[in-house]
């Protein structure tokens, strides 16, 4: 077995189901969910709401906040599960630098499915017009260490959470007794 996974990031483009899978996984594993979207500064939300994609500079402070929250939750003895698009390798490396043993569950889906899902999300700041920019930015993590890729187009939230939970158990997850 490779390095034990102490925490997870549920990652992928908008609409892949990060929040739903994270919530279901936390229920299965007793982990603590961290909703990455809630750490975006107002300027990022305004920019995305206006249909303007974020760039690396926009994401820098957000990623720093996520790193700090991962460390904070881990320091309390809880097992964090973070939802974060983590679209680029450099973003994933930044998160890994905050918490060694960080695993990634990549929820893959097609551009068409992502656009359809995002267009049907009420009350979310991310418009479907930004889907193309998400796919343009995405550097697939398939093949990276401590990464599990799952097909989010054909599996239910419960199936995805169960697969992630099983994988995490095989990579060091210790259930509370």
TrEMBL record:
Keyword set, alphabetical order: ATP-binding, Gluconate utilization, Kinase, Nucleotide-binding, Transferase
Catalytic activity: D-gluconate + ATP = 6-phospho-D-gluconate + ADP + H(+)
A GO molecular-function annotation: gluconokinase activity
Pathways per UniProt: Carbohydrate acid metabolism
An annotated GO cellular component: cytoplasm
Highest rank taxon of the organism: Bacteria
GO biological process, one term: D-gluconate metabolic process
E.C. no: 2.7.1.12
Family: Belongs to the gluconokinase GntK/GntV family.
Protein name, entry field: Gluconokinase
